[in-house]
Amino acid sequence: MNPLYAQMGTTIFEAMSARARETGAINLGQGFADGRGPEAVLEAAARALLEKSNQYPPMAGLPELREAVADHYVRHQGLDLAPEEVIVTSGATEALAAALFALIEPGDEVLLFQPLYDAYVPLVRQAGGVPRFVRLEPPHWRIDIAALEAAITPRTRLLVLNNPLNPAATMCSAEELATLAAFCAAHDLVAVCDEVWEHVTFDGARHLPLIGFPGMRERTVKIGSAGKIFALTGFKVGWMCAAPPLARVLARAHQFLTFTTPPNLQWAVAEGLATQDAWVQEARHRFQQGRDRLAVGLAAAGLAVLPSAATYFLSVDLAASGIALDDRSFCDRLVEAGVVAIPVSAFYAEAPVTHVVRFCFVKEDATLDAAIARIIAARDTLGR
């Protein structure tokens, strides 16, 4: 068997969700929102299933969805994308796989920021690439150009950027993105940008895509996710956006991964992108309220809460909370108290930060309140 997979353990998300199911603990670990998502999108999916074709759609995606994605980014991010520069995929993870398989030649080095989404490293290695890690440090998790320069070699070909950054709940500033753009241009790198959280931003902040910065239009793959935009994670509809020379090879990799995506879901997402801007804005405000509710509750439990600018998550700093346990031990104790969270060390491939724990806040108020009550009740057993 391929040792990459034969030696791989269960993902931390599945492992911790399994413990929630086994114990009845409240699951604030895996990132999925309570609620149904926008009804108009669900109704469009059901209607298309019954009234439209259920045979193979075009490999690159339905024309209606490719056009809707391009129009969406014109409205929201000022990007000048053509429909033929959009490739529809079965979720953003498939988009990441297609992009990395298409762009990596064996031996190529790929810059990855830690903490990172756990799919990145096995995908890079399966493509024959060599991951090179750039470590980000709490509490601000800022990109250090000196660390980037120290990690690059003559064999470096790609940079993978998750912005907003899932495990850290941060988003890059315009200054950081301009620095990254100049760095990629200077070293002739292609940037694979995982931007699935682009609409889940808070406090009035606006996501800025790296593809829109000088010198990046021809050297960026922009990846998005309808599952994150509409809080419908089970839909698994994503896309890659890139200039035609890149898009053509991305499509060739995609055709031998999933080939295509259920057509009724594609039609539904196209309708959602065209009509559900108000729902997306309302969801952003609702999620921000959940963030604030959980942050206040965790602080009341004596936990030092780190800033959360985006995503479904916020984290606590155990060391700053006066807790000597590492993150995995703390999460084990927390399960016993009836709440599941995620140790952030799981998002590192090497030299992990071991004193940060991540919680998901896109839950009903009653669920968050019950979790907070359990944490407060168990605080003395959690390592004060």
TrEMBL record:
<dbReference type="GO" id="GO:0030170">
    <property type="term" value="F:pyridoxal phosphate binding"/>
</dbReference>
<feature type="domain" description="Aminotransferase class I/classII large">
    <location>
        <begin position="25"/>
        <end position="375"/>
    </location>
</feature>
<comment type="similarity">
    <text>Belongs to the class-I pyridoxal-phosphate-dependent aminotransferase family.</text>
</comment>
<dbReference type="GO" id="GO:0016212">
    <property type="term" value="F:kynurenine-oxoglutarate transaminase activity"/>
</dbReference>
<keyword id="KW-1133">Transmembrane helix</keyword>
<feature type="transmembrane region" description="Helical">
    <location>
        <begin position="294"/>
        <end position="314"/>
    </location>
</feature>
<protein>
    <recommendedName>
        <fullName>aspartate transaminase</fullName>
        <ecNumber>2.6.1.1</ecNumber>
    </recommendedName>
</protein>
<dbReference type="InterPro" id="IPR015421">
    <property type="entry name" value="PyrdxlP-dep_Trfase_major"/>
</dbReference>
<dbReference type="InterPro" id="IPR051326">
    <property type="entry name" value="Kynurenine-oxoglutarate_AT"/>
</dbReference>
<comment type="subunit">
    <text>Homodimer.</text>
</comment>
<dbReference type="InterPro" id="IPR015422">
    <property type="entry name" value="PyrdxlP-dep_Trfase_small"/>
</dbReference>
<keyword id="KW-0663">Pyridoxal phosphate</keyword>
<dbReference type="GO" id="GO:0005737">
    <property type="term" value="C:cytoplasm"/>
</dbReference>
<dbReference type="InterPro" id="IPR015424">
    <property type="entry name" value="PyrdxlP-dep_Trfase"/>
</dbReference>
<keyword id="KW-0808">Transferase</keyword>
<keyword id="KW-0812">Transmembrane</keyword>
<keyword id="KW-0032">Aminotransferase</keyword>
<keyword id="KW-0472">Membrane</keyword>
<dbReference type="Pfam" id="PF00155">
    <property type="entry name" value="Aminotran_1_2"/>
</dbReference>
<dbReference type="GO" id="GO:0004069">
    <property type="term" value="F:L-aspartate:2-oxoglutarate aminotransferase activity"/>
</dbReference>
<dbReference type="InterPro" id="IPR004839">
    <property type="entry name" value="Aminotransferase_I/II_large"/>
</dbReference>
